[in-house]
Amino acid sequence: MPWKPKTICRYPGCHELGSDRYCDKHKKNVAKEQNKSSSRIYTYQWRKVSKVYLKEHPLCINCERDGRLTPATEVDHIIPHNGDMKLFWGQTNWQSLCKKCHSKKTALEDGGFGNVSKHP
C-alpha cells in the first residue's frame, strides 16, 4: 500500500499531525462524542421501528431503480435530520437502502466517512 503523508488534525485548535483525520490524541475523543450523540437518537425504539419498516420495504430502492434486486439492510433519512426529531421520525423521510448504497449516500452528504462537523 502506498505511503500516505500525515495531515493536520481536524480537531478544533489542534495542530498535531496524524495519519487520519485526527491525531492519535483526538481520535478516541471524536469517536466517543459521535457514539454519545448518536446513541441518544438511535435508541431501542428506533431499532424496533426500523426493523418493521424494512419488513414492509425489503428492497434497496437505489438498486431497484438500476434493475437489481438487493435486500435492504438500513433505513435511511432522505433529508438528513441533523437532530430534528420531526424529520427523524417522519416515515415519509425514510427509504430502504442496502449497506453499500447507504454508505455511498452518507459519504456524499458528509463529504466523507466520519465527518463530525454535521453532528450536534
TrEMBL record:
| Family matches, as Pfam families | HNH
Q: What is this protein called?
A: Putative HNH nuclease YajD
Range of residues in the leader sequence: none
Which residue numbers delimit the HNH nuclease domain? 48-103
Source domain of life: Bacteria
UniProt KW keywords? Endonuclease, Hydrolase, Nuclease
* Claim: Hydrolase is one of the keywords in the record: yes
The family assignment reads: Belongs to the HNH nuclease family.
- InterPro entries listed in its UniProt record: HNH, HNH_nuc
Per the UniProt record, the source organism is Evansella alkalicola
What CDD domains does its record include?
HNHc
Matching entries from PANTHER family are given as: HNH NUCLEASE YAJD-RELATED
What are the protein's GO molecular function terms? endonuclease activity
Q: Does the keyword tRNA-binding apply?
A: no
